[in-house]
Q: What sequence folds into this?
């Protein structure tokens, strides 16, 4: 089954636009389908479980660019040899609260969930733990891993990098990857405070999603081969750093922060040196890095004080005066609301995903998940 959560809000606002090629998939059926396909592609049980868990986090919470639409890509990477179908993960504890985890070219979700679990164990003694991940790969939505720490009453911080696709501020060529940063903080509510962001204006997979839906991109998020803004997802050559034309230097610096943690501290490849996620080579491991930090809040102020402080903070935040016609939400509130609706109504699959899943179902003689 898929890895669930506790919905805090019942969703009424998400409008699911159905076309002749779009489908709604039940969460349990979709999860089972993903797990089945990955095993058919050769992945061992832990790899299939971890990859499915990460993808379902993305799709359930409305992070469609990093959800189940990656299934076909991951299956191709397992079959081609880019991803190790049966990795032997090794942990080298370097200090009382630090370690390096060699992922053995595993799927990134396998490595990052394992790093979070080890970091939680270390933080219970050391108060804070940091683990660098070596020889890993694309891990999907970063929030899946920080939330895994928060679900164990720890603060989780996750950094990742990827192949170059984001120009620098005033730049005209790809440099950083989309380089995500995620932080999850337990709140004494059913769900944590959750930041999950790419340091690019949008993730690259969102460009692909807009191509599939035949929709224009938002203003100022992507550039053509000359580095000039474009709304056409079909000619987008690179992404802009978050902050746009005036403040993109902030996004570029945050992308560099994720780069330093993910690649420099782990001794892994910088974004310009990582082979493209899209191929054409699906036989060679990509040699990527990632980084997780786990903090035990009770190592600082008393646990009850920390929880009371978070609840007070959230109450003040959500009660803050909003602009006319708007509402103020804490980081994560949008995701919990969207997830509640998708659990009840199903997960919308874009046309390219529908075609991909249909092809996968035919290839391995099973039913599609709708």
A:
């Amino acid at each position: 089954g898929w890895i669930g959560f506790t919905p805090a809000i019942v969703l009424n606002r998400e409008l699911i636009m159905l076309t002749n090629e779009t489908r709604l998939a039940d969460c349990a059926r979709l999860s089972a389908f993903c797990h089945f396909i990955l095993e058919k592609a050769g992945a061992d049980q832990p790899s299939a479980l971890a990859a499915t868990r990460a993808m379902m986090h993305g799709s359930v919470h409305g992070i469609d660019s990093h959800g189940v639409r990656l299934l076909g890509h991951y299956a191709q990477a397992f079959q081609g040899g880019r991803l190790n179908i049966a990795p032997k993960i090794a942990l080298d504890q370097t200090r009382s609260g630090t370690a390096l985890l060699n992922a053995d070219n595993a799927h990134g979700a396998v490595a990052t969930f394992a790093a979070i679990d080890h970091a939680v164990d270390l933080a219970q003694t050391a108060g804070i733990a940091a683990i660098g991940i070596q020889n890993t790969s694309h891990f999907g939505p970063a929030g899946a891993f920080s939330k895994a720490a928060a679900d164990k009453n720890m603060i989780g911080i996750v950094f990742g990098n990827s192949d170059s696709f984001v120009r620098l501020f005033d730049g005209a060529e790809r440099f950083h990857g989309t380089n995500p940063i995620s932080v999850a903080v337990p709140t004494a509510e059913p769900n944590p405070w959750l930041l999950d962001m790419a340091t690019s204006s949008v993730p690259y997979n969102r460009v692909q999603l807009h191509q599939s839906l035949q929709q224009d991109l938002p203003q100022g998020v992507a550039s053509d081969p000359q580095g000039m803004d474009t709304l056409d997802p079909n000619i987008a050559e690179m992404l802009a750093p978050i902050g746009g034309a005036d403040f993109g230097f902030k996004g570029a610096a945050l992308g560099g922060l994720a780069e330093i943690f993910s690649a420099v501290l782990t001794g892994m490849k910088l974004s310009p040196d990582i082979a493209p996620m899209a191929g054409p080579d699906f036989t060679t491991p990509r040699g990527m890095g990632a980084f997780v930090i786990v903090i035990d809040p009770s190592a600082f102020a008393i646990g009850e004080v920390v929880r009371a402080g978070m609840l007070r903070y959230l109450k003040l935040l959500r009660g803050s005066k909003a602009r006319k016609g708007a509402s103020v939400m804490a980081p994560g509130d949008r995701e919990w609301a969207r997830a509640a609706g998708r659990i009840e109504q199903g997960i919308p699959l874009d046309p390219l995903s529908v075609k991909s899943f249909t092809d996968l179902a035919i290839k391995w003689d099973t039913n599609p998940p709708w």
Notes: The longest helix spans residues 244-264. The radius of gyration is 20 Å. Residues 1-19 have pLDDT under 50 and may be disordered. Residues 9 and 337 are 5 Å apart (CA to CA).
